[in-house]
Every structure is written in C-alpha cells, then in structure tokens.
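Consider a concrete sample entry:
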Amino acid sequence: MPKEQNDKSIRVTLVRSPIGYTKDQRATARALGLRRMHQTVEHQDNPTLRGMIQKIIHLVQVEE
C-alpha cells in the first residue's frame, strides 16, 4: 500500500542559542540543520520532525 504524499512543509528558525542546554538538545538542533542563530530551514512535515521540534521548542520558532 503506497504512503500518502505529504506536501506540507514547516519552516524552523533557531532563535535561542543551544549553548548551555543538554548535549542531546544541541544535537537535535544540529540534526534539524540549524547551525547558526536566526538560520531558517524548511522540512517536510512528518511525525519524526514534530518530535524533534517538540524537544527543542524553547529554542526555535516554527512556521507552518
């Protein structure tokens, strides 16, 4: 059974520095592609991405 195509995308912007937070939160920001402050990346919306964003919601701004 083919998976349904999801055309929604999410823009994630790093608005707070991950310095001073736990190592796994810094790693999550890096895995999302966020390297610098105020950098914005765009990803396809899926449950895995939502979980990563929820883990560092205090560091990022999300636009749907």
Notes: The mean pLDDT is 93. The beta strands are 9-14, 40-44, 60-63.
